[in-house]
Structure to design on (178 residues):
């Protein structure tokens, strides 16, 4: 099965974006260390799954930021801009069916991105690894990284790195009982 992997930046109070979607507070921390670590993560990824919310943010970037196939999860989007036809597809599959579909297509490792999308994969315990970069700022409100779960999910802490600018990055793997 295609693995599902998260790499996400969060405020100290657990938000991935302001309520209006702004990530100005996060972008200030996109230095060489952060870019290097993201590139290291991306080297093992062969497909990217983002929610419509994240897709809309990315459309505002000056350049399309991905060099791997992207699946945009949406039940409302019907079409993508023409310039993205060879770069992205829309899917309305639920997380388990989507992972099976990606697996059938030969993809080994998916990057799962977007607050609601990450939460929906966690609700069905489908996330295999989590990298959380915590920014030392409280923003008070916004789009939360985590949400309600039906049952606890245990992760194994792999390592944590901290940086002079105050960013702390922690690596976790899903802890599965044998
Ligand atoms: N801090 C970071 O590292 C980071 C990373 C990524 C994104 N962001 C920010 O997070 C914001 C977007 O996050 P978000 O939580 O609002 O949206 P999101 O998770 O990117 O997208 C949610 C939307 O995706 C669609 N969807 C389809 N299948 C879904 C499923 N199984 N589960 C959940 N959603 C599904 C729904 O749209 P339809 O109504 O079209 O079906 C839903 O409203 C943006 O502001 C972005 O900049 C921050």
């Amino acid at each position: 099965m295609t693995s599902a992997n998260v790499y996400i930046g969060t405020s100290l109070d657990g938000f991935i974006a302001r309520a209006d979607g702004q990530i100005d507070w996060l972008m200030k921390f996109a230095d060489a260390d952060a870019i290097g670590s993201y590139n290291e993560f991306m080297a093992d990824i062969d497909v990217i799954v983002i929610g419509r919310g994240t897709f809309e943010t990315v459309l505002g970037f000056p350049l399309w930021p991905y060099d791997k196939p992207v699946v945009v999860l949406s039940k409302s989007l019907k079409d993508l801009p023409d310039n993205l036809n060879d770069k992205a597809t829309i899917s309305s599959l639920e997380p388990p069916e989507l992972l099976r579909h990606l697996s059938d297509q030969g993809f080994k490792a998916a990057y799962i991105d977007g607050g609601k999308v990450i939460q929906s994969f966690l609700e069905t315990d489908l996330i295999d690894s989590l990298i959380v970069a915590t920014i030392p700022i409280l923003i008070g409100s916004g789009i939360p990284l985590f949400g309600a779960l039906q049952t606890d999910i245990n992760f194994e802490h792999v390592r944590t790195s901290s940086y002079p600018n105050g960013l702390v990055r922690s690596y976790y793997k899903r802890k599965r009982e044998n």
Summary: The beta strands are 3-11, 15-17, 47-51, 70-73, 88-91, 109-113, 129-135, 143-144, 155-162, 168-174. The CA atoms of residues 5 and 115 lie 13 Å apart. The radius of gyration is 16 Å. Residues 3-174 form a domain with the Dihydrofolate Reductase, subunit A fold (CATH 3.40.430.10).
